[in-house]
Amino acid sequence: MSDQPASPDLHAIFGIDGSPAVGDPLITGASELSLEARPESGYETFDSGEGLQVPLEEAPAVEVQVEAPAEEAWDAAEAASEQPAPPSPGNAPEPGWSGITRPSRRGSSPRFLTDVIIAMQLATARQVEDAIETSRTSGQPPERILLDQGAITQDGLARALAERYGLDHLDLGVFQVDMSAANLVSTTIAKRYQAVPVAFADKRTLLVAMADPSNVLAVDDIAIMTGHEVRVAVAPPDDITALISRLDRLEDVVGHTDEQQAEEDDEVVALHESDEDAPVIKLVNQIVAQAVERGASDIHFAPDGSQTRVRFRIDGVLQDITTVPRRMAAGAVSRVKIMAELDIAEKRLPQDGRIGLVVDGRHVDLRVVTLPSVHGEGIVMRVLDKSNVVVDMEKLGMADHERERFESSCKETHGAVLVTGPTGSGKSTTLYAALQMLNTPEKNIITVEDPVEYEMAGLTQVQVSNKTGLTFATGLRAMVRADPDIIMVGEIRDKETAQIAIESALTGHLVLSTLHTNDAPSAITRLIEMGVEPFLVASALECVVAQRLARMLCPSCKRRMIIPKKVLQESGYKAVTELEAYEPVGCRRCGGSGYRGRVGLYEVMKITPEIQTMALERRPAEVMRDLAVSQGMVRLRDDGLNKVRMGRTSMAEIARVIGTN
User: Fold this and answer.
1) What's the whole-model pTM score?
2) Per-residue model confidence (pLDDT) at position 456
3) First to last CA, the chain
4) Distance of CA 69 to the CA centre of its chain
5) Helix-helix angle 237-245:154-165, to 10 degrees
6) Helix, strand, coil content of the chain in percent (nearest 5)
């Protein structure tokens, strides 16, 4: 609890200067009253604050007045504080804007929330009417239906709620959050109520950002827990979730352990599963929990001389998170190896394993790989959050034409459909989306995966286990004898697996699998190089999809720009004019990177008779690519340019992911 008064800017914004609560008498001495010289009247007067000019010699020594109601005091303070206007949708905020948007009036309004949405032009009257009609049968409120349909955004709904209840709206991507206030409540309570204290309004009052301002139980509980009065403001749920994820206290754990073990040995010798309070166990658990909350795909423990760097790969880019002192590094690595059931005594050879966890009710799998290096043993953990797997074809980001080509190939009764790309490009997610589309009671679908990233009802999913001899090839042989209609092989890694998969596609089965190549035409040459006969490849393949993942521009801060013709030409495009697009700016909502989330870039190549002939002739991949483009294939880089034109990503991101050649 902080006894410091609020900062001057909060005083100006909220109209609070350490004044008493509403209704308390305000005692003001005559020496504190504002003086003004009135030469034209011949005597001095003072301003009583009521708009009256009273002669100074008649002024009382002490004046007692009752403070105005809170709403009036706030309105007066707001009028006095000249804050820059909040940004309009789609534009970056103005410099100096505090992140606070004030309502048109204070106090709750008798209007329906849907009426406020229409008045604020967040959705059309027709959209709202349709949502109201749908809500009569669905049991969901109209605003939730509008949100699910994409008619309004979470931020738009939060602004409407703030206007409806006469409260301030907070943009937590801009607002300066006081972390000492935020840490007054536990993350468990913050997640339960979707509410976080963000500032001290004064010595007795907390400003609390809430997703649902009508939750009076949350307000009462936070007031009791913190011992402060609560002033409510409204913020979007995703902003509040992002803020909660920052309340991990990693540095506190590392710092406490550093002091605690300063005089002990440099290496943690033993860890016990029952020691729940061990600082190393807390550290590892918090690192994993933070990685899941921030949507990281990989966790890196990289030894670097005197310390170990902890890095997360978020949206495909590595970010430094914290450092672990050398005296704790061995303990942290041993803890991870114990969780993955690896040999903690073996530090000279690489090992791999897996960990199954439940983080905030979400099932998470970690694929663990240890790497001995000159500075010590490092660890890389691949995070597989099963709750975040997208299994809807329409949400993958494929253009309509490419999606139709891919779906038509997946609906064939036999043949092979391959998805290619580097590690972490979303190949398995695309296959899961295809399986979800094909998953019907009439079909027997069997998969062999390493690991099973997403458990899907109606499928028979087999987990590869090298320790027991269950490889992709042995699993695939058994699957062919199990009367399957559709076979999904997690990855074609060797000649044996490729041979069985191709032969299965020729014997009446639809085979879905992944392959590591740079583009779609290279998949044909790759299979031939692995030892599969060209006539088998040409006959079995139905479609090849190459894909990448590019970061999406943050919708809160992206800025319009003109890409010069010369820049487009240097990137390898035959541009004859400039291109209107968007560029990243960076705000707190996106962590300053200018990007939030990722979108897929796709290259879908149908195997036509002409391409089959080229495969039989062992023609180079470049020749097959040119033919496929002439037959309607959109290259990865061209799909990227289309998404730049749509404002979903930037030219720099496309160059980073695909290159400029």
Assistant:
1) 0.64
2) 84
3) 58
4) 42
5) 110
6) 40, 25, 40
